[in-house]
Amino acid sequence: MKKIVTVIGARPQFIKAAPVSRAIEGENNLQEVILHTGQHFDENMSQVFFDQMGIPRPDHHLNIHSLTHGAMTGRMLEGIERILLQEEPDWVMVYGDTNSTLAGALAASKLHIPLAHVEAGLRSFNTRMPEEINRILTDRVSQLLFCPTPAAMKNLSKEGFDAFPCQKINSGDVMYDATLLFREKARRPRHVELPEKFALATVHREENTTRHKQLMNIIRGLNDLADQCPVVLPMHPRTRKLTDGSGLPAFSGNIMVIDPVGYLEVLYLLQHCQLVITDSGGMQKEAYFFKKPCITLRKETEWTELVEAGTNKLCGSDPALIMEAFRQFTSTPPRFTGGLYGKGNASAIIARAFL
Ligand code: UD1
Ligand code: UDP
Known about the structure:
Elements: E1 2-8, H1 11-25, E2 30-36, H2 47-53, E3 60-61, H3 69-87, E4 91-95, H4 99-110, E5 115-118, H5 130-140, E6 144-147, H6 150-158, E7 167-170, H7 174-182, E8 199-202, H8 206-209, H9 212-226, E9 231-234, H10 237-243, E10 255-258, H11 263-272, E11 275-278, H12 281-289, E12 294-296, H13 304-308, E13 312-314, H14 319-331, H15 346-353
Parallel strand pairs: 1-2, 1-4, 2-3, 4-5, 5-6, 6-7, 8-9, 8-11, 9-10, 11-12, 12-13
The protein binds uridine-diphosphate-N-acetylglucosamine (UD1) and uridine-5'-diphosphate.
Residues 10-12, 39-42, 45, 65-66, 97-99, 130-131, 204, 237-238 line the site of uridine-diphosphate-N-acetylglucosamine.
């Protein structure tokens, strides 16, 4: 029996862990212990995903959140180390690129516990993004690197990983697995009167929510777009903090700002929207899974294959580029061909790699 400690803490990690936990549960020789760092903690940012997606209740909860990068990562490192010494696992598994990911990676590698990284090899080549630092460092100390795309495999090769003592596997993307598992259960958000046609928007990146100018421009872009297509905006708590009484331009009456929704509700919104406008990594891929064009509120993306396929346009926070992308997508809808993110069996590939 091999014991895996899974370290998760933020919304996208719950979604990624759900299909992988299922696959691990299906293997007789694997045992999973779940450690929640506490990074995301509101009911609609954490518990709802455990409930809706049947993720096992965390065995350990550190309750660490709302701190600066250093304080958060440092306190998580200390807490995760304590639990790893107690659990003595064969593997530690981390997901994506958050501070919880890096803390898990550092704790495991300092204790010489083999580390598996799901969503390895992604790069934005923008080292001002906290996520870029987290993913580069995590990849470097991992022994098993599960890449979601051929581009991610290539990034690792270019950085010399073929000569490192590790194994890289093109598993496909676990968020695709999650979409396939749950799309039939998509559920209309309660207490929300959805317009017949709408664009689905989310904003939470540090680069878009720490500088007023950036967010001001995004609000302008969304307001312009909302004149032609109403916008539904489930607002991340980070963005909510900034927009509450901040002197930023008001959202137009055609923008419906709502609280974050659960996974089943976001699947419904993805199914029924006209297009997606986002700075989220996960939502860019989900737009593609649901064959919806995506306006990305960033200057670069880790999911370059979407831009190459013509289904995703990078607009930064520029209102003119946002409107231009909207016009282009409306006048000439992009064509979607499948297969960019694997076959929907990434979780099974990942679980079997531990045997
Ligand atoms: C984090 C990740 C980011 C990921 C995002 C997913 C890092 C560096 N960033 O960003 O990569 O894309 O999660 O959503 O790890 N907050 C609440 N309630 C919550 C969660 C957060 O109020 O349930 C508040 C916190 O108190 C904090 C702010 O939102 O002040 C930011 O939270 P934090 O986890 O630091 O970063 P995110 O922006 O969520
Ligand atoms: N999501 C959700 N409710 C929302 C907004 C997003 O369930 O109100 C889901 C959605 O599936 C998305 C995922 O959360 O892909 C990832 O979240 P986020 O955008 O916060 O993080 P990122 O992918 O940018 O790291």
